[in-house]
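Listing 4. Sequential folding, example run.
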Amino acid sequence: MFKKIALVAMMGALIGVSFGAATANAATARNGVCEDGEFCLYYNSDNAGSISDFNTSISDYGDEQPSCYEFKSGGNGQGLCVKNEAASVWNRTDNKVTVYFNSGYAGPSQTIAANTKTNLNSTLKNENASHKLNDGGGTTPPPGGTYAPPNTNPHPSAAARAPQATKRTQFVDDEIRRLTGEKDCWVGDYRSYEPSTSNHNTGNALDCTISNAIGTYPNAAQKEQGWKLANWLKKYADKLDVRYVIWQGKIWSVARSSEGWRNYTAGSGVTGGHYDHVHVSMQNPYGD
């Protein structure tokens, strides 16, 4: 009888050990849960919104489906590509992790201490393209003389006739040249195939050529350059009176800002999809 009781007790202990071991699972990357040992990006500040979790370094988050890394969990931002959309992070690894402005671990950066939750700084918030684990890269300033905050647009909503720009649009063109170095932005000729009230025809839009020539795809460096301009226009839309921005088959608009960069379906091809130029429309009387 004593042996039987002892055997039952020993079996119970073994079962308890077995169940205990089963609960100590390793982190599962890309499941939308920020687990121990992972580095996690959040769509919103203060570690809110949808989560994208990683257990490796990523040299390029990607900017279009199906190849990009997306926000996985429920909440604001779910399903969006994380590139240029993350606002806060949680480093649940035991080492430093550095977030970079550009792909390839380049450009301005912010290093996150081990086991730390924090918001990304003003340079990296919604403007981030890669991260490296176990990396103490430090914080680097933005490229000298570029992408500083613009002045506030003082001009009222108005209409002109292409190729003339409204004063509001000319102000944006001047700020782009002054602060980003882009010098190839134009209203363009009057377009008879568009309504007379379209943004371009009323002098309320600019096309900034990024590739070597209209009709050609940009190289990797030019693509990054275009995203830096597009996200600068997005970031300071309120100060510049920007209405929407289109680049690389994506559109961001003030009216639907909570959705981030969305797929642009009104055009196709190199130019129609805005792969060779950044388009920016200003707030205007017609809203087209």
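-- end of first protein; second protein begins --
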Amino acid sequence: MRVVKEAEERRNEILDAADYLFVQKGFDGTTTKDILERVGIARGTLYYHFKSKEAIMDALIERYSDRIIGAAQEIAADKSIPIIERIIRVVMALDIGDEGGKVIMEHIHKPQNALMHQKIQKVIINSVPPILTEIIQEGIEQGMFSTPFPFECMEMVVAYTNTIFDEDMVEMTNEEIASRIQAFVFNVERLLGAEEGSLMPVMRMFGSKDGDSKE
């Protein structure tokens, strides 16, 4: 057990060093030699844990994914937060906004990293609908929503937002984005059987992120 623990600690040291260097120098500008020097290990030790720089990035993506999904689950479970606010907070938690996250997002959006981009999308589409469904189920019990298909509704919502609002998938002007957001909220209210206008705070949240949709 001691060896396993030490191996895990070393692996995390490599990931921490790579995360720092990717922020400072970018993924392409960072070499394995840079990582070796920052951690203070031999090349063989690095390759024992990771076969390549790309494998390190894969592991960082997995770590970021675990972190943001965990944060979303924690928010969803906090019943002291009103339902609509909880939905907004869960969505906001999925936004990798720190410097390391931005480097990762820039990296996976490169054409040569389409498979990595697909991995992130798979994590979101498989992990987020169940989290949101728990909140929607509470809303149904409280009379806020009325749908026999809470999970399927959230699956549709996540699949739509994960593609239409992905700049790599669909190119839109600011006006088109604003129109899509308005249509999105309009239709989600109907999918959930919610009172008209009850999800407008969600629209304002989208607008604040994009900087253009204003009421």
